[in-house]
Amino acid sequence: MVERNWAEINLAALERNLRLIKDSLPSHVRYISVVKADAYGHGILPTAARLMQSGVDLFAVANVKEASVIREMGSGWPILILGPLLEEENEALVELDLIPTLSSHIELDRLKALSQKYQIRISTHLKIDSGMGRYGIWWEDAPELINEIKKCPEIKLCGALTHFAQPSDIEYTEQQRSHFLTVLKNTQIHNEPEFWVHADNSSSLRSFDRKAIFNAVRIGLLQFGVSPPQGSILADLPVEPVLSFHSRLAMIKKLPKGTSLSYGRQFTLKKDSSIGIISAGYGDAIPLASGNHAFGLINGQPYPLVGRVTMDQTLIDLTDAPDGIELGQTVTLIGRQEKREILLTELATQAQTIPWELLCSITKRVPRIYSTKRE
Ligand SMILES: *Cc1c(COP(=O)(O)O)cnc(C)c1O
Fold this sequence. Notes:
This protein is α/β, with parallel strands linked by helices. The chain has 2 domains: about 10-225, Alpha-Beta Barrel (TIM Barrel), CATH 3.20.20; about 245-370, Lyase, Ornithine Decarboxylase, Chain A, domain 1. The protein contains 10 helices and 20 strands. The chain has helices at about 10-25, 35-40, 45-55, 65-75, 90-95, 105-120, 140-150, 170-185, 345-350, 355-360, and strands at about 5-10, 30-35, 60, 80, 100, 120-130, 135-140, 155-160, 195-200, 215-220, 245-255, 260, 265-270, 275-280, 295-300, 300-305, 315, 330-335, 340, 370. A hairpin with a 5-residue loop joins strand 12 (about 260) and strand 13. It binds pyridoxal-5'-phosphate. The site of pyridoxal-5'-phosphate has 12 residues, from strand 10. Pyridoxal-5'-phosphate binds near residues 34, 201 and 203.
């Protein structure tokens, strides 16, 4: 089958990134690989399969459905659910042997009931809200919930976590960290053997304190070779992009000076021009807002996207291109061609979005082609 658009996923790079991140952390720190949202658009099955061979300690996903895909690949891999469960989803915890996060008395009651029904002990991590204002028990209310949990032999508390709202704000992050640590110190839950304590993700590793009681990290974006835009202590790690996105040049046409391009007529030609039509649009992976801001690589040279991006086609200005560009050539929107590289973070900035969202907006229409290239 001939492809007009495709995302190339380099699984060897994923494995190298994971090693790099692990090697940069103290050896007691365990690696929680966050593979929610179809492994950030990389495809959960091949991605998780590779990660399983690469030294992941725990997988984290957003919900039960995502967990079930990992579970199909094998029993035994510990899988943590990061978000709140709907009541009907609780049975799946037992069926699929998953670790829920717990943040409320309601959830505790549900887990107790589940445990009694199946006569099993349920392991869980406690999510503490230290200032994110999303999922988690508010840190000042946490000790009371912890007391309740301690009274339940059915529930095994085997971890505690919090999540940072703005890692680039060091003062706020340290305040969150200290609220979280206050709960641990006052309740001593972390003194159980093998207890997981985790907060840091790709963006907050900067403030990772090697002497602290934190003994795990939750890494999503960085393992895919994308450095968080706000930076982190690990931003200097030479992680390699795992994903690249390519399309084809379907047509080239000459248009006279003064012609307006595409919907909304947001671009007008200043001179007689040569305009290429790329066989991809926002229905594939090119963000709507990247029109007039982003670039595509052809023969290793960048050319500007012009006019509004449409669902299936995007225009590129080839007026200044040397002869030799042919129909059917590969246009790279994310990734490397010869010596030039367009980083996903660059495209995200040009499209006024964040790399996480950009990865999640590579649609189903784009086949993922897996490779294991050595650089
Ligand atoms: C998505 C998510 C992560 C991973 O964040 P990255 O910035 O992609 O590393 C970690 N923890 C929680 C709770 C998350 O929702």
